[in-house]
Amino acid sequence: MSGVFGCYDIKGSKQDVTRDTYYGIFSLQHRGQESAGIAVDDEGTFLVHKANGLVTDVFDEVTLSALTGSCAIGHARGGSPRESGTDAIQPISIKSRVGSIALTSDSVIMNANKIRDELKDQGAIFQTNTDSEIILSLFSRNRIRTDDCEHAILETMKEIHGVYAMIFMAEDKLIGVRDPYGLRPLILGKLGDKYYISSESCALDAIGCETIRDFEPGEIISISKEGMSSIKYDPSKEKKDAKVCVFEYVYVARPDSVIDKMSIFDSRYRVGMALAKESPADVDLVIGAPDSGNAAAEGYAAGLGVKYGAGLLKNRYVGRTFIKSTQQQRELAVRMKFAALKTAIKDKKIAIVDDSLVRGTTTKHIISFLRENGAKEVHVRLASPPVKFGCCYGVNASSETELPASTKTIEEIRDMIGADSLAYISLESLRASLNTIDCGVCSACFDGEFIAGKPEDDEESVHKVKYN
Question: Residue 173 in 3-state DSSP?
């Protein structure tokens, strides 16, 4: 997954638009650490700066001062084996017959190769292997045939199959798009004369703006000098029909975010409480695998009536290991990421609560750290069910051979990671923890129900699911 952010001043002021976008993608850095970029509209002239690295590495005071405009979009990119190299860095900008257009997207288009081949047959030229360039090419063609950008996007949505949260920047407007399934989150905010679109509410909170609401499934919200307007891909679909990726609540989103009216922290805490009922452990101390396991660990400790404390230190200058592109990168990052608090864990029976176990690399190393530094027993509790299915929606694992839960029993996984005991939360309890959510969730990585299909060139890498 990646983070997308956009800002538009309807009065045309250029004050703080670029800086707000910078702070927006900085607040979304947890969604991706591969690259970052910002595009701005300066009275019809599009300026783009992007590069590999963290947001703070890509931008400095000189760069931000040069990027002036009344509208801006930004991107913090996560690692993906499907899209790599400098060509994959967003935002992407093109000039077409109907003017300049830029796009930042968090997307996986299932029929991307088919569309690319069809467009090439029609004379289109591609410089990258990214979904974003395909989307822009379709949009540019459809814009010639339609009366406005919004209907060009509608026509584009009819042709692409997949999951996405997208922000378009045209010469006179900012447009946000959430896929018809609602799998990717997208949120609208406002402060004074400026409107904002963000992957998560934490980025809106960071700049002090009011959160208006979440986008509905298939909704296109357009912001211009005339104000805000909305149209839907399928008007019959309501918010309850959305199926946001459950991994947003398990791992991806920041704890202080609220997605589709459900607090991320509250959902994780409630999972921990449920996990204590389902799988208690006789321990002296409960710790969290920082940082995404901390909220569930607090809930687990409260449910057991056992002390919750710190047992691991995290190197804040190492990115999220789960979203590294290759296994070698993930293993190296894990070795640099954690250190144990010896005095806190020595001679104690410990329960460590983590958000999930995808490949098991991180968990295995953490258990080794704890044992090497004096832990008497290490019991692992996971705040999500077994990840059995390779899923391109939210879990960066395209092949089930990378997922222990797809081929091993729980006891075999316990032995693989070296824990004294291992237990997962049930899918029913995970769903029940989302007690204030105003839509449904997609749990394809747990149950194999791929509601948006799967990549057409990846048929053998995931379980086949029969649809009614």
Answer: strand
**Cα 366 from Cα 372, distance rounded (Å):** 10
Closest-CA residue to 369 (of 417, 307, 299): 417
Domain extents in the chain: 3-238, 250-447
Kind and range of the H or E run holding 5: strand 3-9
For 313, what's the count of Cα atoms within 13 Å in the CB-facing half-sphere?
10
CA 18 centroid distance within chain: 22
Is the pLDDT at 84 greater than 70? The verdict is: no
CA angle 128, 392, 152 (to 5 degrees): 55
The CATH number of the structural domain formed by 250-447 is 3.40.50.2020
Directed axis angle between helix 294-304 and helix 264-278, to 10°?
A: 40
For residue 58, what are its two tokens?
């890509």
Q: What is the pLDDT of residue 401?
A: 74
Four-point Cα dihedral 355, 109, 44, 6, nearest 10: -20
Enter the tokens of residue 319. Answer: 């990115």
At residue 257, the 3 state secondary structure works out as coil
Per-residue pLDDT tens over the stretch 351-367:
999 999 988 877 888 89
CA distance 237 to 218: 8
| Cβ 203 vs Cβ 55: under 8 Å | no
**Across the strands, what pairs with 107?**
164
The angle that helices 361-372 and 327-337 make with each other, rounded to 10 degrees, is 30
The correct CATH number of 3-238 out of 3.40.50.620, 1.10.3080.10, 3.40.50.20, 3.60.20.10 is: 3.60.20.10
- Separation of alpha carbons 130 and 235, rounded Å: 29
Q: Are 136 and 175 in contact (CB under 8 A)?
A: no
| 83, two tokens | 């899209």
Dist CA 22 CA 6 (whole Å): 10
Element (DSSP H or E) covering residue 318: none
The model carries a pTM of: 0.91
